[in-house]
Each structure stands twice: as C-alpha cells, then as structure tokens.
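Before relying on records like the one below, remember that each one covers exactly one chain. Contacts with other chains, cofactors or solvent are not represented anywhere in the record.
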Amino acid sequence: MSRISVLDRTTARRASLLGSFGESLAENVLCSAGFTNIQNLNRLKMNFPFGDVCAERNTEKFVISVKIRNRYEAHTGKLNARYNLGSKCYELAARAQTELSATPAFLAISLFSDLYSAYFAPLTVLARSRGIPMTAAWLSRYECLAKEAHHGVNTSHLKNTYSLRANLMNDA
C-alpha cells in the first residue's frame, strides 16, 4: 500500500502564503540585482496573466513569473527538482508580453529553513517546458541572484506538510 498526499484547504492556504512570501522576497532580490521600475503586477490586477512582477534591467523590460518552493519534498526529503509554471504558461506569457511589451522570464526561489536561493532567466531557456528544472545541471543555465541568503523570517508555517492517506488503487 502506498501513501499519497491529501491536498485540502490547509495545504492551499500554505501554498498561497508561500507564494505571497515569494513575491515580496522577489522585489528585494530583483532590486539587489540591479533591476529598476519594479512593479508587483498583482497590485494592478489580481492574477495578472503569467507574471507577478514587471521590472527593467539596463534597457530590457521583463514580465516575471515568481515561483517559490520548499527546496525539499514533503515526507521524502528529496530535492524538489521541478517548479511547475502551469499548463497554459506560454499562452499567458505571450499575452503578458504583448500587453506590457516585456520579455517573459521567471524567478525561481528555493526556500530552505532560514535561507533561500534565487535564480532568474528568460522563459526561452526552458525550450517550451512547462516546468523550471532545479537540478544542479539546470541551475548553471540560470543567473543566480541570491545564493543561500538569509531572509530573516520565520517560515516554519510554510514548510511542506501534508496529511497522508492510503492509496489502495496502486496495490491492485
């Protein structure tokens, strides 16, 4: 008998809080990396297509999807090796690109206890994949904006915790 994680209101709330923390952290990370004119797009329009943040660096404008995840999976302790962008991420990115005249990009934030690392890249680096690979081989393709930096916030309530239930179907 295998066990599967139960997704419920508690896990949905935790994911929402984690996302909000990532978006607030993103603004500081981008500013420290030399981005300017940083705007939280969700303040302009809730659930803006694809992007959470719009920012400029040098002469280029970016619409950035922020993805923050716990570095390790719940229960297994294995690396959380892929951060999903969503099934329609490329269609939504194209809409955001047109609306804002900005290059679609992502900021992937890996959270571990009181530390985080943040990686930035244009969406094109993923070659149409709908997920951001977070293995060492892929991390070298991204620009590291923060490495094992302290965030100074108690994030214990944001850790992956799921109720488990037996999956009897896999045992047949």
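The longest strand covers residues 60-70.
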